[in-house]
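Q: Sequence in, structure out?
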Amino acid sequence: MHPPANSMDDFAPMVKYDWNPGGREPRRNTALSLPAAHGNGIKHVHHHLMHHMSVPDIEEKDLTPLMRQYLAIKKQHPDKLLMYRMGDFYELFFEDAEIASRELDIVLTARDKGPYGGKIPLAGVPYHAIDNYLPKLVKKGYKVAVAEQVEDPRKAKGIVKREVVQIVTPGTLMLPEGTEKRSNTYLAAVIRKVSEEGGGDIQTSGVRGTSEQRIVLPRASYGVAHLDITTGDFHATEITGKETFQRLVSELMKFQSEEIVIPDSLASKEDFMQELRLQLGDDRPITSFADHHFLETYASTLLKEQFRIVSLDGMGLGEMPLAMGAAGAVLAYARENQMTDLQHVKGVKVYSGSEYMVLDPTTLRNLEVLRSYRDGSVKGTLLEVLDRTRTPMGSRLMRNWIQQPLMDVDLIGRRQDAVEALYDDLFLRSDIKESLRKVPDMERSLMRLSLGRGSARDLNAIGKALESAEELKNVLEGSKTPGRSSLLCEISEELGGGGDIIELISSAVVDDPPLSIREGGMIREGYSPELDELAEAAKDSRQWLKGFEKSERKRTGIRSLKVRFNNVFGYYIEVTKANLEMVPEEYIRKQTLVNSERFITPELKEKEALILNAQERRSRLELSIFEDLRNRVLESSGRIQTIAAALARLDVVSTIAEVSARKNYRRPRVDTGKRIHIKGSRHPVIEEKADWGFVPNDIRLDNESHRFIILTGPNMAGKSTYMRQAALNVIMAQMGSFIPADEATIGVVDRIFTRVGASDDIVRGQSTFMVEMLELANILNSATAGSLVLLDEIGRGTSTFDGLAIAWAATEFIADMEKIGAKTIFATHYHHLTGLEGELEGVVNYSMAVKEGPEGITFLRKVRRGPASRSYGVEVAGLAGIPPEVVERAREILGKLESEDPLEGRAVAVDSKEGSVPVSRRGKGGGPLQMVLFPTEEMLSSEDEHPVLSELSRMDPNNM
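A: Exactly. Output:
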């Protein structure tokens, strides 16, 4: 329900921003507050900038008709920058102009003083460059409304009619023609249904500047949909069961959603919004949308209309009402902002969580799958190693395959068969690579045509891509290799069928058409006899004008006489002032300039009418022909998208084959068993970057005798590399790739968990230890026997004994088949844990080999059976450049500390400059249980003992 007309809320802008990084304050002036438009129910509830656009309070009678029209449109979109088409420019006025000038670094000027006595700020950009400016504004946090002239200015009675034809937001941004983006731009929609059974998901979060707090979100199921309007890529799923909120966040992060649309009712839930913002970060826009767009009935009607079908059951939405609601809402939002029906969106891929291995944001970050942990770039990632694709469509699909490894062994094997066939055929790979190089981004060309923003260049791009597809089909059919792969046979079949479209485009469009469809000259000679006739008439007109100019020069004797044209006077004769005495009497003066004068004649004006009429007819006809071509191509958009998808798949499998052949990867056997046995495993990224020869290692994990590896050894010896390469090998295997190894058998993994490194999360008010514990809690609550768990130390940031206790208990819990039983590698410096081998079923010790010599230690980077003899921490300190004096003193202290086991409860005396100092494991009154080098008298005399220490002191690992 909307507030009454006299409510203060009626004049509030629709956008509400939470905070303002960098301290920038919104402009505040005495201005007219424009009423919000409630028509589409869209409210931008969260963004990383604070914007409030306004205009001066001006009486309408004081405005020109044009400015009255501008303000009428602006009132409908008060929360957006309004780009207002005026001839060859998009203009912005008032505060919008000041913002655009500042953010785009364009000139700020002003219109002449109006009747109200003040200048109007003005800034503008050329109409043909708007696609270059829109991304800059959206990136800076603004939404933009684009108002076009919707009638011919020459036929307008009074002010030219203008309407907003597009609203640009982060999730609905179109890229400029010629811009190649090799990743998707997803708009997301989320809907929540709270469980009637009660209970909830516990999230431990914080508010800036405060300590950790627990937020209990109600137990709920979610529907989530993602739509890339630049390609037509559309996905939807439901999230049910346990840990649904965290899985929702994982989906949003996996798709790297540019903007998230949620129902108004959900946007009002402060706990949900706070946690979502904290999880996703403050730079991701969250927009609320009227609740009715998320209703199953509304979504069903809209989706059936969009896809031109009578039932959604065939797409899998019939049994997923929440997924249907989210899909309907994201489509409705995109259509309302683009103000078109998105013809290129032909279907939605409905998937379930069981189809893909789960890679949550923490795992993707820690393993550096898509982005570097250091700078967020692709450098040093698995994506960088594998993505040698030749087409933008293939690059987007490669990213999708990497972040969504398959669970179905038959589908994995199908991809592997295609890779293997091409792996073995160098010549076929070379032919495919050469043909793919010529393929432009046909998906986004089709999108621009579908949205009415395409040009003849987009038609040519589609034609060239289809020609390459036909060429590739012939290449595949001329080889016996595709017969070894059902996927390659399917791709070959789908590459065909574009011949009629190729013929249509090549016969109608010139090879190098202009950028704008209004410039003319885009239709090939011979396609339209009528257009050819008009083109010939235009040619004759140009010849007539040249002849007229030549005859007038001869008749008047004025050698510098010129016939020219402008939009004000049409065609005219220009004579310099030095020759004015020679001008004939029949010339009619039209304009006097500093150095010349302009004239017309009845003969010239008569011919002008014929010429301009012919040019207008030609322009209208050429535009009509283009629109007919566009519509005929769009009628085949489904077929074109099928061919584009086939090109993308061929690009990906041939690229994986090429990378695998060059880097000596091997095909792993992927099955439904419980083993991960990899012989000669290598890290795919580090082996490329390392200056030294990479040392391969075997990996053996299963759900029986080797389900929990305790990995010990010094820092820098390669423990983290070993763990990460195990995970990356599994990801590559399940995406259908070959892997860097000699041979491998890998049972499908349902999820990979990583607890690798930690640091303070200041924004959320979380300490290093809390971050670690949150990640560990996620593992203990969500891992299954089918998961792969990587733990790189537990308990840093707390006392030695607290950390050891937690690590010990977590080991017992994960290794227990009745509780989790996940395949796990735990890298640790807690050497006491190595005593668990033989005491806990499935726990085994491995360590990093080190060679000691006169010159110090050498890391062999080889994993061997058994625990490490010691940590070599002092030696590593020396390698890091710690002064020798400090290193030697550390050795002395270490010798004393190692003379007594702190777990036995006896203090150790360490000599210092001040005398003998006891090292105690006690803290006052149950305080931090940590070895204290400088205890107080109270600490030494305290008889209190922490119950965990008491229990640990009584434990004998050999008799448990």
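The chain has four domains: 60-168, 186-195+215-353, 387-663, 669-869.
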